[in-house]
Amino acid sequence: MRRSEPRAHWVLLLLGGLVLTVLLLLDGFANGAVGEAARDESGRPAPAPSQVASGGPVVNLAGGTPQSRRMPAKTIALTFDDGPAPEWTPRLLDVLRRHKARATFFTIGAHVAENPALTRRILDEGNEIGSHTYTHVDLATAPAWRGRLELDLTQRALAGAAGVHTRLMRMPYSSRPDGLTAPEWQAARRAGEDGYVVVLTDRDTEDWARPGAAKIVQRALAADRRGEGAVVMLHDSGGDRSETVAAVEQILDRLQPQGYRFTTLTQALGMPSAEVAVPAHERAVGWTLVTAQRTASALTGTMSVLFAVAGILYVLRLVLLLVFAHVHMRRVRRPARRRRHAKRPAPPPGGLPPDPFPPVSVIVPAYNEEAGIGATVASLVDTDYPGTVEVIVVDDGSSDRTAAIVDSLALPGVHLIRKPNGGKPSALNAGLAVARSDIVVLVDGDTVFQRDTIRHVVAPFADPDVGAVSGNTKVANRGGILGRWQHIEYVIGFNLDRRMFDVLQCMPTVPGAIGAFRRAALDKVGGVPGDTLAEDTDLTMAICRTGMRVVYEEKALAWTEAPASLRQLWRQRYRWCYGTLQAMWKHRRSVIDRGGSGRFGRRCLPYLTVFQVLLPLFAPAIDLFALFGLVFLNPLVPIVTWMLFVAAQAAAGAYALWLDGETVRPLWTLPLQQFVYRQLMYLVVVQSIVTALMGARLGWHTVRRTGTFAGFEGREQSRGPVGYT
């Protein structure tokens, strides 16, 4: 039973894009790239009230009246900002544990979410935790809502990582009470209104500047001769903290023998514990935030790797295509060298050489092709091929005037077969059943040949190892921007690929627009297969697996009518992509086969899997990541990458156009192609894969013809249909 094509997955795709965007924004927010508040360094605002500026480093604003506290004598509260960090926090904890000391860690919420186990270790070893905002934002310059959001997210991260909230808070970029500015004081008051105890410092070691362990120790021990207690500010994140670790070891070694006590802030001041256990629902909410943050961080890292891998693979593919195209060009354009390497066919038993111009049967399957069938048939008859050419038009149950037009031409050597509609493969096989020649050319009903096309496409069969020949398909209706885009794709993508596949002897597709086959090869694979939607790809792969060669003939030109609208283009490429996936799956065992089949499978199928399935499948996410980097991160990287991408593609396109004898003028549309056409091709791959995974059967999508070659019948064709594009 045929299943309808999937539709609901577009909702899932949009939802996935939304989730990806939210996670990227979350990671950008956590790393300060999104919504970062700029610090005002233009002038020094008025200081905080004198009773705060001259007071102690621990400020309690409960009740509306600020109360400051100082450390008792010979009591040191070591405080560490900006952590936890997986490299330095454990080393500092090891030092504290060896000396049986305790400390207070003012943690960044995003770092807590990324390191939940390390957060729990801080608490398990008797230390305490305070809030240092979620992203290290400057609360003095951030709006009030942003400050509350930062503190709230940090509490949720602590709830998810360790099951606690904290009563302590230290503002980023703050230091001693006498350096507190009016904006910082306002931020501190807002935090106090929310129940936080604001912690400043007595001694700022400025270890973040890495002045050396000795200097850090000197700043931490200031005035220790009087036996004063102090809150000492250090850092356990934000760069290389090896000097801090060494300094803490020295501080403990020097002061503990003198009777100094190293403990947490709340224990030193006899305050309630900084940590408050949270109920289960708070832990669940916090766990969700922690999981989302870790997922976002992992996603960003993965996307960065994918971005780099995709770029490397693209450059590698481009280089390989150009190298193989050059090799192919040298082989086919140096007759002497080509003759030296070509195998000479053995004469038949009678001793006569093989016919250089054997009879040819041209089969044209046609379904509702009235717009161009006359031009197609006329071009096939008007040929300079010296041998016999019979043209067989198979009308596959057309509902228009296709058959009547062929009849009205009354051209010699043209035969019309009418049959009920059964699909293109059945029409081709019906033509094969009546064809009389050993060389068969298959042509689409919207294609026009040049006068020398048949002669060129048949020539490679002088080599008895050749089973099929791919011609060079050209876009005829390239006048509009969509036509130019398809013209560029045909020349750069299709024809460069075919040159490489020819050299590697693993051609996956002889196009339906122009392909020539040895009848023996067709008989060997059982004719044209009808169980996939890409019968040309399926047939070509089957012939390759027999060990017979499939080659590309660049001089065998065929002009075809490309889709004239995005909708028609979508329908065509959807069928092509889905059919190619079917053919790849059908011939998957060739990867483990021996001989010619294994050569084809191991060379071709991995290439198609990477560059026609996997990279396009992930490309929308990579594009979204690049857009995110352009808006929120360093825009120089995505801009330069995109410019290099387009420049490399333009250079390859210019070379490909030169190989095909085409002008480079259409390349001006290449930058625009990156914003519409490329994304459409990616979505085609996504749709095709979803269709395949859901087991739906895709119907044959017929492209509406616009009559590009209308009026071509009987006209001079020596220069091709250039005047009719």
Structure write-up:
With about 725 residues, the protein is an alpha/beta fold. It has a domain at about 55-60 and about 75-280: TIM Barrel. It contains 24 helices and 20 strands. Strands 15-14-13-16-19-18-20-17 form an eight-stranded mixed sheet, sandwiched between helices. Strand 3, helix 3 and strand 4 (about 105) form a beta-alpha-beta unit. Residues about 35-45, about 335-340 and about 710-725 have low confidence and may be disordered.
Total helical elements: 24
Could you please say which CATH topology of the domain at 55-62 and 74-278 applies here? Answer: TIM Barrel
How does the overall form come out from the CA principal axes? elongated
Structural class: alpha/beta
The CATH first-level class of the domain at 55-62 and 74-278 comes to Alpha Beta
Distance between the termini: 42 Å
Cα radius of gyration in angstroms: 37 Å
Lateral strand order in the biggest sheet: 15-14-13-16-19-18-20-17
Average pLDDT, rounded to a whole number, is 85
From the coordinates shown, what is the CATH architecture of the domain at 55-62 and 74-278?
Alpha-Beta Barrel
Helix content: 40-55%
**CATH superfamily grouping of the domain at 55-62 and 74-278:** Glycoside hydrolase/deacetylase
Count of beta strands? 20
Strand content: 5-15%
